Amino acid sequence: MKLLVKLIIIAALFFCGKISAQEFKGEATYKSKRQIDVKLDSTQMDTGMQKQVMEMLKKQFEKTHILTFNKEESLYKEEESLGAPNPQGMEMVMIGGSGSDVLYKNIKEKRKTNQTETFSKLFLVKDDLKAHEWTLESDTKNIGEYTCFKATMTREVEDIESGFTIKTEKHSDEKEAKEKKMKTITITAWYTPQIPVSVGPAGYHGLPGLILEANDGSQTIICSKIVINPKKSNEIIEPTKGKKVTQKEFDAILEKKMKEMEERFRPHGRGDGESIEIRIGG
């Protein structure tokens, strides 16, 4: 069966020889949605507030990105949009994923640069482009006019049992002990050899064709439009502004900031203060 998949891919690449033989550029539009699982304390938050929270979270994770690509490079950037306002009387801070994020990948040189604004500071996260261990499957389906093939891989991520958890709790001087647990998830991608580039949306790449859809169990990213050799498109320019850090250094900065925020929003002294915690799973 794997041999059949390889033969079909080779045939598709042959018929796309005209595209492959020339320098070309493409632009793909992707829509992303995240599955949201929210548990609210009805004694602390009324039904109207719950609806506002759900609407805000839904809006935050419905995004549109543009992927501009050629055979060696790609640029993935979010389209600017108005986010949903915070529910009245509640402050919510979303970590990362701001509209200013730009992800540049250089497939030939196996490196990436992610320009991201977090906690009002601009970072330039530079690191190697790590290879994904994809398994090519025999399943096929059409996405628009393109024939796509299935590929899967597994990855370990932090396990947050309830996905999104919003809870209120009365003040306590005792700090909650949090132990990180890991779980294995399966990522499914659909790619088309009709567009012979090894790129895709977000952090996905490394397949013999453009990735048009990806799903990790909680988030789905799907291509809604493709234009090959557009008359006007974004330039593929590697971002240069921001504090230069590696991915490991950036992760450490985020973890430190998260701990600082936990302390900031944790009530001190006696009283009936309450805090709201939002955990993002997936």
Protein described:
- With 282 residues, the chain is α+β, with helices and mostly antiparallel strands.
- It has helices at 2-15, 17-20, 47-60, 247-265; strands at residues 26-34, 38-39, 63-69, 73-78, 102-106, 111-118, 121-128, 135-143, 146-158, 164-170, 182-192, 210-215, 219-228, 243-245, 274-279.
- The strands form 2 sheets. Strands 8-9-11-12-13-1-3-4-5-6-7-14 form a 12-stranded mixed beta sheet. A 3-stranded mixed beta sheet has the order 2-10-15, with no helix packed on it.
- The radius of gyration is 21 Å and the shape is globular.
- The two termini are 32 Å apart.
Features:
disordered C terminus; three-stranded mixed sheet; twelve-stranded mixed sheet; 282 residues
Concise synopsis of the structure shown:
By secondary structure, the protein is an alpha+beta fold. It is 18% helix and 39% strand. The chain starts with a helix and ends with a strand.
Cα-based radius of gyration, to the nearest Å: 21 Å
Helix content: 10-25%
Overall, the morphology is globular
Instruction: Summarize model confidence as the mean pLDDT.
Output: 77
